[in-house]
Amino acid sequence: MNAAAFSWRSAVPELGNGVREKALDQTQNVAGGRVHAVTDALGSRSSGMAVHSFLHCYQPAVSIAAACTALAAGAAYAGYRRRPER
Question: TM spans, by residue (predicted)?
């Protein structure tokens, strides 16, 4: 979430001074992936920036989750291959 918020705050100046404060108020919506709420509040121009900021955080998180799942599957497979000692 912090990466998405940082990315959004970095993109806010591109929206212009008139929208800056309103855009900063939308940080939680961007981090939560609620792009429709950001678009409703700031207009369609902000949609692409909000998506980019959200994905900046989401893609690495999904990659890490996939790696953890693969490691867990490998550990489970290795554990089930052993015969229990009697």
Answer: 61-80
